Amino acid sequence: MSSISSSQYSTRACEMRGKNDFFPDHADLQTYYDFAVELGAPPNHQMCRYRGVRAQHLVFLGESGTYAWARMDAMARQRWPDLPVAGKVAADKTLLASLPERIIYQFLTAGRFPGVAIDLHQPIDDTSGDFRADITLRCRDAAHFIEVVGCCARDRVVRNAVERRGLIRTELREKFYKSQGIQPTMIFLDHFAHPEELKGLCAALIERVVHEADGREEDSRQRWTFQ
User: Fold this and answer.
1) Contact, 110 vs 59, CB < 8 A?
2) Averaged in consecutive runs of 10 residues, what is the pLDDT profile of the chain (227 residues)?
3) Gap between the Cα atoms of 16 and 122, Å rounded
4) If we measure between CA atoms, which residue out of 205, 217, 70, 196 comes closest to residue 141?
5) d(CA 90, CA 101)
6) What is residue 166's predicted lDDT score, i.e. its pLDDT?
7) What share of the chain is helix, strand, coil (3-state, %, to 5)?
């Protein structure tokens, strides 16, 4: 889904100026709550860019400063005490490097099979040096790498220096993966606009690493048989 610039809401902002420029209305709070419940964590405003027209005033609020965003979260939390806790700490108390990583980690742990490990920020291989995968799924000797790109959508449009630096780091890791013949799964901000699809992707990745481990085990068994 394409994003909609918050500048399109300048008319609305002008109408509200002097009254509640930086206050959410009921529709904003409902959109925020619904999105948070689907994600298992409150979204940041960057994710809201790709959520559709209803979420675009949330983008405006987020770009208006941390106070406006925090006030909106507090208002939503007062209305819905069951709103998931904000931030980078997962439901199992694991501290992640970012909110997007927390969401993916929670989706993965919810569907994890016995025997599947979830590694966080571990070296990609013995030659990777400072290059570390955001998340690695492991089953026996099989591994699959996941990069959670929190700086942009799949179009790779960046809007400020922080996002630009994040994209540079991501593309450096991509080059390393390519040099090693590894194909990681790349998850961008616009993926988060569709939580159910993202959950399905996470479940498929778990099945994939288990299937790969089973295949390697079968190949090894056959080699021993023919020796």
Assistant:
1) no
2) 46 43 90 98 98 95 92 96 97 97 98 94 90 96 97 97 97 96 98 98 97 77 52
3) 48
4) 217
5) 9
6) 97
7) 55, 10, 35
Could you give the CA distance from residue 57 to residue 9 in angstroms, rounded to a whole number?
7
**116, 139 Cβ separation under 8 angstroms:** yes
Q: Is the CB of residue 117 less than 8 Å from the CB of residue 140?
A: no
Rounded CA-CA distance 148/135 in Å is 8
For the chain, give the longest Cα–Cα distance. Answer: 82
Q: What secondary structure letter does DSSP report for 190?
A: G
Place of tokens 């959670």: 148
CA distance 2 to 157: 11
Q: What pLDDT, on a 0 to 100 scale, did the predictor assign at position 129? A: 82
- C-beta separation of 209 from 139 below 8 A: yes
Reading the block at residue 16, the tokens are 């509200």
CA 41 to CA 100: how far, in whole Å? 9
